[in-house]
Request: fold
Amino acid sequence: MNIEDVNMPTKKQNRQLKILDIISKNVIDSQEKLMDALKEAGYSVTQATVSRDINELKIVRHTDENGLNRYQVLEPYAADELSQLKLNVTQLVNSVEQVEFMVILKTAEGNGNRIAALIDHVNFKYIVGTLAGHDTIFVMTHNADEAKRTAETIQAWL
Reply:
């Protein structure tokens, strides 16, 4: 067997495994702290690289049972988009409110864009589009009746 026949982990895979190890063993609540921990482990990374890794690994900032904000991996992460959305809503949406033809979702800090992207990918019949901020999502529908149905559906997942 030649060395070329063996699938060796890439630098990226090794770094991402290290990230998972770090966040499972430490309270890491910022990209800066994660970068510092990676540096201590011998990895030289930029903030952009850490940000991409966080997205690829489906890591979110969440309040743990001790009230501490920390990064963690969403588990289990379902394969189909609707299941992904339901899981993320269950874990990360704090409130749902209908205002006229819109539904306003308040999410855990830093998760607005993630949830909005999942909503966009599911292609709900009544949803025209989303606008997301750091922890707030505006879900636009055609009218108040569609907004009510959308809010009720999302509320049922909480």
Notes: The helical segments are 11-25, 31-40, 47-56, 81-92, 112-122, 144-157. Strands lie at 59-63, 69-73, 93-99, 102-107, 127-132, 136-141. The CA atoms of residues 95 and 106 lie 5 Å apart.
